[in-house]
Amino acid sequence: MKVLMVCLGNICRSPLAEGILRHKCAQKKLDWYIDSAGTGKWHLGSAPDKRSIQVAAKHGVDISGQRARSVHSSDYEEFDLIFAMDISNHKDLMRWAFDKEEENKIKLIMDEVYPDELMSVPDYGGDADETPLAAEAKAVRNAKKAILMTAGAAAQKLMAKLKHEQEILMNVADMLSAVYSMESTVLRTQKLIAIKGEAACATQIDMTKVFISDALEKLNIDGKHALQSFAEGDELRIMLMGLKRYTKYETINTKDARRRIAAKVLEAKKYSF
Q1: Is residue 258 flagged as an active site residue?
Q2: C-alpha 38: how far from its chain's center?
Q3: Is there a single domain that holds both residue 81 and residue 174?
Q4: What is the pLDDT of residue 146?
């Protein structure tokens, strides 16, 4: 089996995908040939982005030796499967395919996990934000977008009738309350970090991450209930996909975080926030 991973520049997403699949194949002793390429030619010969190298290394995968290349017409003949990291890459690959046989080799990689949801592997989108709780601050921004999408769609669909839909209004109100609490928590913890330093605020950081994780789950449920109250069919499906993206958050071990918080509170014999 020969598999090609494709993103835009071949320095961030596809090198990671190549490295992960190579690692998995080695573990399972599979004699597969794995490679990656980009639809663009801006980074030819460049090493992978340092952030991708760091993420891979964290999981025991070394991608530092990879070098960027672009997609060639011969790739369609050489490879059995060609995985696109996002919808734009997929469209380009399909456009360049010579015939139906080549088109059938091209897949959107996230379809392997979320079939028919048209999900893309996100790019870094610029320099990494290394400020404390950057992921949590981003989660707050996205949660606000989830509210705007839900409330805006409800207002557009129901117009003056919305004032009689108390359940939807309650859902949106709960979402607003959650975002207010999320943002207040993140800002308070960031302020503490600025005063005491990140190491001294480990417990507060754990608390913030657990709270954001729980709040986003509840926000997602409230959003679903609201959307399902007035939308249906493809319209509902598209908005639920948007809601899922806006309430996405990094996976954390909340059990261990809660135990660390509990141990600290018991040790201090008081609330540590």
Answers
A1: no
A2: 21
A3: no
A4: 92
Q: Can you give the CATH number for the domain in which 181 is found?
A: 1.20.140.10
Active site residue 7: yes
Number of C-beta neighbours around residue 253 at 10 A: 11
In a domain, 98, yes or no: yes
User: 180 vs 82, 135, 191, 233, CA distance in Å?
Assistant: 43, 17, 16, 31
Given the residues 12, 13, 75, 201, the one annotated as active site: 13
Q: Exposed/middle/buried for 10, CB within 10 Å: 0-12, 13-18, 19+? A: buried
Q: Are residues 87 and 204 in the same domain?
A: no
Active-site annotation holds for 62: no
- Domain assignment present for residue 159? The answer is yes
Same-domain check for residues 67 and 139: no
Q: Which domain holds residue 197?
A: 134-268
Number of domains in the chain: 2
Q: Which of 25, 123, 174, 245 is catalytic?
A: 123
* Shared-domain flag, residues 173 and 106: no
Residue 39 near residue 92, CB atoms below 8 Å: yes
| pTM of this structure | 0.55
What tens digit of pLDDT does each residue of 249-263 get? 888 899 999 999 999
If 0-12 CB within 10 Å is exposed, 13-18 middle and 19+ buried, where does residue 52 land? buried
